[in-house]
Amino acid sequence: MKRILIADDHAIVRRGLRLLLLEEYPSAEIGEASDAETLINKIIQHEWDVVICDISMPGRSGLDALSQIKQMAPKLPVLIMSMYPEDQYALRVLKAGAAGYLGKETIHDDIIKAIHTVELGKKFITPTIAEKLAKAFEEDQSDQLHEKLSDREFDVFKMLASGKAVSEIANQFALSVTTVSTYRSRVLEKMGMKSNADLTRYALEKKLI
Amino acid sequence: MKRILIADDHAIVRRGLRLLLLEEYPSAEIGEASDAETLINKIIQHEWDVVICDISMPGRSGLDALSQIKQMAPKLPVLIMSMYPEDQYALRVLKAGAAGYLGKETIHDDIIKAIHTVELGKKFITPTIAEKLAKAFEEDQSDQLHEKLSDREFDVFKMLASGKAVSEIANQFALSVTTVSTYRSRVLEKMGMKSNADLTRYALEKKLI
DNA sequence: AGAAACTGTAGTAAAAAAACTACAAGATCA
DNA sequence: TGATCTTGTAGTTTTTTTACTACAGTTTCT
């Protein structure tokens, strides 16, 4: 009698997933949430065995929700789904505590396998991701976040970290404000951070400024 | 043959000051600037003995200009004028390197006296300010900037320093965004800082977060 | 007691930033 | 050698932030 909670903003996806799961576990209890808030509430109100959560719900909230869940219920396994291929974001998601990453190539069997795996408290790692993990580990990527930045991104990063406004930076580099803004987004994305203050903290810690 | 540079955005004030100065120094060379940029340019182009600068030129630029001047020409004495009474901001101005603070009660004689004083490389301090200085010193105010904040301001300060957005804070305290924004302005003003990154740095240094 | 300053609060309007989107050229991986 | 990623760049639209301003209680000097 599994209790599985699905979070995705597309009703179609939820429906598909539900059918797929019921096929395997006919008597399972399936919950649905269409946004991060509902997801959190359902987790508070009820116990679940596994959560399957799309990362790109409205408002970038997949990762946010994940960290919130990890605080509230550290043991509840959360499988993160994504429409993106198994790129570097998979690592970030795992770092944030996900029990597994289901990329866009994921097929039926993978999902069932993933559920079995994470229920045992283990992580579901596809071979592709395993390799990335190994590489990341070797490069100690997690400790040198900023090395993943391109030159331009790094410039922008340093200036943001020291408190410069996007417009100031644009001015100084003679770029459009939106360009600098895009760099900022990428920097935050790549470094898995969400505010300039995080950048400042990081830079201070690493003595980059 | 004194060379005095006046910076104020009101033509009337510049004119009045010019006449007043010429009365005392008939052969003085008087320069005028109506905004911070012009002020900086005139300082680059020409040597001056004293600068008299209003603190509230368009865009909060009085203090900014002062620190820029202090970097370019550390020895050039800058007298800061202000329409505000000699309150706590006088201290901030002095801390930023001004040679003296001329408040709204300043009279003719004070200005002349101030010029004489600062030309000798000394600071022009009125008794009122001297007292404030002493008190500030005693309280080591300069090292405990955050103690000047009110409770609400301090709350907001901490949250800003840890990277919360104004809107998040407003939400959490159930206040209007503009209210929180006002607190932010006051915090920045009181602490003599200009960006959230400064707050973060300060808070980290003092281990407040 | 009275003036001046400080605090908590918010509206309006203007400015800035963020999210999204797009695209071409170069890098890379399979 | 294609397919996929990354990088540099920017426009549009939506959301946030900021600058000003205001105002009524409190507190604080004189």
From TrEMBL, chains A, B:
S-adenosyl-L-methionine as UniProt keyword: no
Alphabetized Pfam families for the sequence: GerE, Response_reg
A GO molecular function held by the record: DNA binding
Annotated positions of the 4-aspartylphosphate modification: 54
One GO BP annotation of this record: regulation of DNA-templated transcription
Domain Response regulatory intervals: 3-119
Keywords annotated in UniProt: DNA-binding, Phosphoprotein
Annotated HTH luxR-type domain residues: 142-207
Name of the protein: Response regulator transcription factor
The species this protein was found in: Lacibacter luteus
High-level lineage: Bacteria, Pseudomonadati, Bacteroidota, Chitinophagia, Chitinophagales
